[in-house]
Amino acid sequence: MDWKNKMSEYMTMVNDALENYIGEHQTVNAEVFEAMKYSLFAGGKRLRPIFSLAVCELLGKEAKQVIPYACALEMIHTYSLVHDDLPAMDDDEIRRGKPTNHIVYGEGIAILAGDGLLNKAYEIMIDHTLKLEKPILGLKAMKSIADASGTNGMIGGQTADLLNEGKEVDEKTLTYIHHNKTGALIAAALKAGSYMADADDNEAESWEKIGYTLGLAFQIQDDLLDIEGDASEMGKPAGSDERNKKMTYPALYGIEASRKKVDELTKEVQTFLKVYGNESNFLSALTNALMNRRS
Amino acid sequence: MDWKNKMSEYMTMVNDALENYIGEHQTVNAEVFEAMKYSLFAGGKRLRPIFSLAVCELLGKEAKQVIPYACALEMIHTYSLVHDDLPAMDDDEIRRGKPTNHIVYGEGIAILAGDGLLNKAYEIMIDHTLKLEKPILGLKAMKSIADASGTNGMIGGQTADLLNEGKEVDEKTLTYIHHNKTGALIAAALKAGSYMADADDNEAESWEKIGYTLGLAFQIQDDLLDIEGDASEMGKPAGSDERNKKMTYPALYGIEASRKKVDELTKEVQTFLKVYGNESNFLSALTNALMNRRS
After folding, report:
1. Which SUPFAM superfamilies match (chains A, B) (predicted)?
2. How far is A273 from chain B (nearest CA, A)?
3. For residue B283, what are the CA distances in angstroms to A37, B80, B220, B244?
4. Average of pLDDT values for A185-190?
5. pLDDT score, position B237
6. Between chains, do A36 and B151 touch, taking CB under 8 Å as contact?
7. What three-state secondary structure class fits B132?
């Protein structure tokens, strides 16, 4: 199967499941459900869940095994964007070409919608894990995701990012921010996918490690696109990092060195994937596409 | 043992465990840890965790069995207060006699500290459940807490509360808000405590049900104190609900009817507890103390 067909097959699986998971509500709390759905279906690329599905399938299990954990990752990613866009954080009014959550629903509901998405992620994972034949695998997938999302993971990265806005940061701080703000969830996606395919801790940790490499390549590529990209393709104005005084890899090392770094990291990922032969064709093609994207 | 000694024994167990769970951090993300600790140790009564510990012990197991789930409940309760106090929500500057989180740390960090506490609650529960001999019990305790905290529980209640601020609400809406905003976490505390003492689903659900009764009594008593209480004892100005145009039970039914309702609900709880004989002495005394408190 062509990798793009596979991609859209995965995408449909994820979108259908997300729709289903948002579930029922009463009139009195309808607004928070609407706000959650608004951001969850605002055109996300579903990269994190797709990574989970692909790793699970690559390791010989059905992709659907990991669906609840994959969807939880997407909900956690989405909540982090909703809160990140708030006036007290990045103060962004546009994301993916659409008004951000608090612009549409107001700040109070946007805060609650973020909280709701984060909590829902755990509701889904716990519910599914309770029904598993081997709950321990689900618990390990959950632990990968929970640790990556917390104050020693994604939230830690957001904290460092927020506190250093407008400041010159050193390499150590920039690495910490990238590693945690972007890397951690991508690494958890790969790790959780491997656990749901019965991987042992060693194999799961090697997937996690390569996930951090992939995450860093993705982040630097993102920063390069922010400088060079076309606003209409990006869904946000080009150069927004510079205007927001965000420290980035290209700002610290220059464009050429950053491109070289993306190439090196991509090669590292491809070398890792090669060990799995043809089974890794999809992930290999997706990695290349991400590193050559224009938006 | 006198119930007040028992209370302070439980309190020490919870505080020590919370201190321990907050854990290690690096310099770069220290601020979010400080903000989490600030609100977590701002003088909370630890009611929800103490309910969990007491139910677990009442049912014949060691109270410490439920500590991770009890502490998770306190973290979830605390995060909900941090977010609730934000300018976009209730806009409160004082809680328990101290400046609220965003007054001390700024709105951005307060949002992240709330997110961090919510996520940490799940990190702790997942970590512990992985080590259990019967992970299914931990998963059931987690499910009780997750469902109660979400958009069909506490967050749903906060949504309805936020959207109805300054409006005349009917009995149905007020019941929804109380049931979900306050009742759900108290009910989950009792339910989770019973699961960690090996209760079956039927028994756990009867604890959950009486938890909602207890939660409603507690909420009405809180609203009565807001009208009648002494500001210095309450840690917040008396009459703040009226100034914030919050709809309350006393505002809808009057003070006398509200007092009568508290008495009725308390009797219902005591009748339930009586079945357990002397084992329920602590919970019985605590319930009476809560309904006769002045702050």
Report:
1. Terpenoid synthases
2. 30
3. 41, 25, 19, 33
4. 98
5. 57
6. yes
7. coil
* Average pLDDT by stretches of 10, chain B with 295 residues: 93 97 88 97 96 98 98 98 97 96 98 98 98 97 98 97 89 94 97 98 98 96 84 57 74 93 97 97 96 83
Q: Which two tokens stand for residue A237?
A: 């104005």
The beta-carbon neighbor of B116 closest among A26, A110, A151 is A151
Residue in chain A nearest B147 by alpha carbon = A123
Query: Contacts of residue B33 in chain A, CB cutoff 8 Å?
Result: 151
Of B88, B89, B156, the CB nearest to A32: B156
Give me the residue from B88, B120, B159 closest to A29, CB to CB: B159
A50, with CB counted inside 10 A (0-12, 13-18, 19+), is: buried
Asked if residue A82 lies in contact with residue A89, where contact means CB atoms within 8 angstroms, the answer is: no
CATH value of A3-291 in 3.40.640.10, 1.25.40.10, 1.10.600.10, 3.30.70.600: 1.10.600.10
pLDDT band at A243 (very low <50, low <70, confident <90, very high): low
* Gap from B118 CA to chain A (nearest CA, Å): 8
Rounded-to-integer distance, Cα A15 and Cα A11, Å: 6
pLDDT of B159: 97
Q: How far is B120 from chain A (nearest CA, A)?
A: 6
Contact B156 A89 (CB under 8 A): no
Q: Do B143 and A150 touch (CB under 8 A)?
A: no
Give residue B26's pLDDT.
83
Beta-carbon separation of A25 and B127 below 8 A: no
* B135 closest CB neighbour out of A139, A156, A162: A139
CA distance A163 to chain B (A): 9
Which residues of chain B from 154 to 193 reach within 8 Å of chain A, CB to CB?
155-160, 162-163, 173, 176, 180
- How many whole angstroms separate alpha carbon B161 and alpha carbon A55? 43
In the chain, the amino acid numbered A267 is K
* DSSP alpha helix (H) spans, chain B: 3-22, 30-40, 47-58, 67-84, 101-105, 107-131, 135-149, 154-163, 171-177, 184-195, 201-228, 231-234, 240-243, 249-253, 255-274, 281-291
In total, chain B counts a number of residues equal to 295
Q: Does residue A114 belong to the interface with chain B, where contact is any CB pair within 8 Å?
A: yes
Are B126 and A116 a contacting pair at CB < 8 A? no
Amino acid at A131: K
What confidence category does residue A277 fall into, taking pLDDT thresholds of 50, 70 and 90? very high
User: Domain locations in chain B?
Assistant: 3-291
Torsions phi, psi for A265 (to 5 deg): -65, -40
Chain B CB contacts of A85 below 8 Å: none
Q: How far is CA A97 from the centre of its chain?
A: 18
User: Would an 8 Å CB–CB cutoff place B32 in contact with chain A?
Assistant: yes
SS3 B154: helix
Supply A105's token pair: 């629903």
Angle at which helix A135-149 crosses helix A107-131, to 10 degrees, equals 160
